[in-house]
């Protein structure tokens, strides 16, 4: 028995909880997977997986064995990458999970920039609408933009912040007058994504904070679909600025109620990954690259803001002298 091969096959079955899916991902036949797991169980003299006609589950011994298998396979991967780095042959495959909004905004540029540094690196990307859809064991790292990060056993590092903007299209505003106060939203067609408040939106002005009840005519899971619906003139929505930056710039979407503060509008962009002691070098390199890229972007933005404020003060001073 090739025990290492059997361990890899068992780990994939434990990850997928499905023999056929594990065989598909490994590129081997289901019979090979079934036979390999059975041989490993015979070698260990213990059942690792409960099999029924309806479901597959790990036994307590199987769960414990899988945890140790994962640690072993990570160490082997790190060993392989050490050799590759020494031989100046860096590369590999990173499994990335990403929220749809991040995948369609920053992520392509991040991957392209990293490929310039590591041209041998490959990526396997899974896009999700809800973090609950993602299984921790199915990715090496995850990008997510949320208002409030859920409890997680993963390492969570902040990359950037973005804010929601209330927008509508010129087509919608051509037949519906733009709301002049938050209270007027109640008479408008509102579109809501599942990651946005769907019952009321809260605002703050010089008189304090107050809530406005919204009655969505459309509630969708994907912010991307909401964006498309707003562009089509279906109604008003609140969307992350990072998702609609180009549309705001070219006027295909127009910001509304800019004179008041939208409460709870900040989202944080996170990178999440397992904090295992033996992290693969490719994963560590990519995480360090991403964190440094956003750190430099934040520093550059800060310099631009300071320069802009300084220029404005300079002009103001000249006006005063005149």
Automatic annotation (TrEMBL):
<dbReference type="GO" id="GO:0043565">
    <property type="term" value="F:sequence-specific DNA binding"/>
</dbReference>
<comment type="similarity">
    <text>Belongs to the LysR transcriptional regulatory family.</text>
</comment>
<keyword id="KW-0238">DNA-binding</keyword>
<keyword id="KW-0805">Transcription regulation</keyword>
<dbReference type="Pfam" id="PF00126">
    <property type="entry name" value="HTH_1"/>
</dbReference>
<dbReference type="InterPro" id="IPR036388">
    <property type="entry name" value="WH-like_DNA-bd_sf"/>
</dbReference>
<protein>
    <submittedName>
        <fullName>LysR family transcriptional regulator</fullName>
    </submittedName>
</protein>
<dbReference type="Pfam" id="PF03466">
    <property type="entry name" value="LysR_substrate"/>
</dbReference>
<feature type="domain" description="HTH lysR-type">
    <location>
        <begin position="1"/>
        <end position="59"/>
    </location>
</feature>
<dbReference type="InterPro" id="IPR005119">
    <property type="entry name" value="LysR_subst-bd"/>
</dbReference>
<dbReference type="GO" id="GO:0006351">
    <property type="term" value="P:DNA-templated transcription"/>
</dbReference>
<dbReference type="InterPro" id="IPR000847">
    <property type="entry name" value="LysR_HTH_N"/>
</dbReference>
<dbReference type="InterPro" id="IPR058163">
    <property type="entry name" value="LysR-type_TF_proteobact-type"/>
</dbReference>
<dbReference type="InterPro" id="IPR036390">
    <property type="entry name" value="WH_DNA-bd_sf"/>
</dbReference>
<keyword id="KW-0804">Transcription</keyword>
<dbReference type="GO" id="GO:0003700">
    <property type="term" value="F:DNA-binding transcription factor activity"/>
</dbReference>
